[in-house]
Design brief:
mainly alpha, 2 domains
Length: about 130
């Protein structure tokens, strides 16, 4: 018997379905509902919508684009607090997240670099 590769979860709903399937709970539910719709698919889709693993970016406004372009021209490896604050606020706005400002930027370098990389991708989508 050949195993098929599991698809990547889009969000929490997909992950819950995988856990319930692998533990046998899903099969048990199917037995008890006896062919009736239990709402699992709708629940999975709603959870994926509420808690996605990939957050969609919205487009930059013209002002955001111009300001980020200026930031890219002057950025260095060492960020000022104002630059850090700007990146965190812009990232939160573009990716519909809560604003998060790290207490220790040095301890959170990878996260901050990830935010900048994602903002760069949005910015570069205009450069094509």
């Amino acid at each position: 018997m050949r195993k098929t590769r599991a698809s990547k979860s889009k969000g929490v709903g997909d992950t819950i379905e995988k856990v319930l399937t692998s533990t046998g709970v899903k099969k048990l539910v199917e037995i008890f509902v006896d062919g009736k719709d239990c709402g699992c698919q709708e629940r999975k889709e709603k959870l994926n919508e509420l808690f996605p693993y990939r957050f969609k970016a919205r487009c930059f406004t013209e002002d955001e684009y111009n300001t980020y372009k200026e930031y890219r021209e002057v950025r260095t490896l060492k960020m000022s607090y104002e630059q850090l604050f700007y990146i965190c606020k812009l990232y939160a706005s573009v990716f519909s997240r809560q604003v998060w400002i790290p207490e220790c930027p040095e301890c959170n370098k990878k996260t901050i670099i990830g935010m900048i990389d994602k903002l760069d991708k949005v910015f570069e989508s205009y450069e094509i």
